[in-house]
């Protein structure tokens, strides 16, 4: 009767702030818990990361059963808890310390229980052999753990810090509780009572704390040993050999907030106030397997990640400490299992780095970074990157707040995805399998600026016509057209905003007076321009429609070559190789070349895709000759890894330095991959002092997402709008004689025409012709004419207008706010935006207000540093995201190793680049490729014999 009355008492949770506020706090606490694990590892000189607590197992078994009482009170019948029901269980007893210390050392003991109801429903119960927590909530718990994780001096300093944070009285109370729990002599864990401390829900209306206590008939144990480091393990094994070990599972119902609080775990639920009610019995039997198998099972149990949120909503944990446990325990387990990493900056880096950053803020008021001496400019860039990592990574993926119950514990990671990339990008981060995968939301570098009243102000058609359209081709003389083809090849791997079909949720752009536009092939002219809308993510009321998912994976995984899904990849394969027909890509029914991604197709993309498909197949032959016992799947996946990493390396150390042609960028980006030059001890010493993480090259470091889960961003997409690189006119030459083969316009070499030209001219002539010609400069008035009426999926688009419209609609801030958000000074006049007085006049005429200048326009207007192919503002996104794409990717960091890539693969990537790649497949081009520059610099043109007087030809 009393239990029934108590079980109906009304209880409630009182979060600390909003659910989102708590989630952010819990994420920080998760990082702090990983810090505790690192400190413990350092203090104990352990080989690897261990559990933050309960590191040493005393006993673990799969041979346990939980059976509910036949006379289970009605108030406690809920979910799987039904009279007479019996379930298999896994049990683990442990010492509470985060280090594997001897059983006779002062310590608390813990019990973890996993109850298997079905394959779809399991419940984890966690308890400790002291009835109350030393911490009132999660903040106190983690702070105490951090303060006491170091050595003696570190603990003293940590406890003093706690006294300032929580007050001396609270610190003394915490120390007393911990001391009381740890200093008890334990004879046997089979004779201990284990309390849950925090409360859980039990059914629809009841809240309880639970406890495991030995059955009254439990046999006594000998005195505890002072010399046997494993006496508790040995005692339990001996006890189990003599018979089953049994515990009673009891619950204490909530009474009232004062005597049985939900949120404050430092208050004991007294048995006088809330007498325990037995609801079930746990029976642990002697292992049914042999000794060797039992030992293996214990190892497997020790790998499990117990979490009280592995349960159903009917039994979900309650209270602040419990709410934190889901994300904190998940992070701790992932850290222990090497699914997630935390890198601690040395003290010298934290102190000297902060001083250096403040110094560069002062220096940059007078001298821009690119005008500093080389080594200072490199350190200045490192300071920029640090600030951007701290302030300009904004996660946008929908997250769980408040935490939700998880009936199925996170399953073991499949062995296949540990060593190969998935096609859709899942499991790159093993602790967050969907991070960066196909369908993941584009992140942000700047807070979105949703301004629907400015969508058409000023009119994007007018902006494009007056400021973007090409009048006369402006060449980028330091580059060749392969640089233009390359970046489109890369963008197709990185970003793909899914579009609705034209006629479904269109963006309607008003046209200037007197202008009409034909929106679809065969359609009638209209007084508006219609653009197929992107597929927005609905985040619910109060969220602006500026969030979009990526139809490609966010990772640098060669998806443009291999496809974004296993179905697409299998369609492209023949055994381990990519299917080629006469060494060319096959065609689809529309005449397009079949590859991982073939939208916006033209000859430059055909050349890149053909080159890398051939490279993949050559690698398959090389791998097969070296590893004769490998099957097709392993050869294919290893070749895919090698090709993807080679692409990332080429972009990092060749393409980007070619576009940003300064010594600082060349050294900086080479260091991103290889670390600073071995001979440059000054730079290496400077990085050792300020940023040790940057002194080795990213592939030799651990994954690090810094301040937000990994994703590519809408701001990143904006700065990669580089359509001016494409010329409208192309001339093709023979790679041996230099004789002209043909002249073509862009529309002649795009779409289904690309394959005809590729097969007619051949890869060698195509590469040579692109190599000796310049792309367009990334500047105003240089948008290709060929893209102003482009046919795509039955839609006719002006891509210059689309670039402006998309950027506005996606909530990318306008140019001045974009600059300021990237820590650059705001502009105050149109003359500051551009070096051209005429362009300044046009900008003023069109915008009227410098704060209204479109980001796309401002980035093209801004005078670039010497040698740069684009603006310094756009470059801020580059220095942040270029490193991030490498640093977050485990296949380019911790799993960039011979065991995954093969020793041959690691050597292949180290010793190859764009030039060697081209020469491997087109050796005839050896004499024309640049000797001391990348393959994206202009190639040497061959003078045709007919125009060379020395060869007897006609004089020019």
Automatic annotation (TrEMBL):
Gene Ontology BP term (one): fatty acid biosynthetic process
Boundaries of every Catalase core domain copy: 51-147
SUPFAM superfamilies (alphabetical): Heme-dependent catalase-like, Heme-dependent peroxidases
Enzyme Commission (EC) number: 1.11.1.6
The keyword Iron belongs to this UniProt entry's keyword annotation: yes
Name the record gives this protein: Catalase
Cited Pfam families: An_peroxidase (PF03098), Catalase (PF00199)
Signal peptide coordinates: none
Cofactor: Ca(2+)
Single Gene Ontology MF annotation: heme binding
Keywords assigned by UniProt, alphabetized: Dioxygenase, Fatty acid biosynthesis, Fatty acid metabolism, Heme, Iron, Lipid biosynthesis, Lipid metabolism, Metal-binding, Oxidoreductase, Oxylipin biosynthesis, Peroxidase, Plant defense
Transmembrane segments: none
CDD domains: PIOX_like
Gene3D superfamilies: Catalase core domain (2.40.180.10), Haem peroxidase domain superfamily, animal type (1.10.640.10)
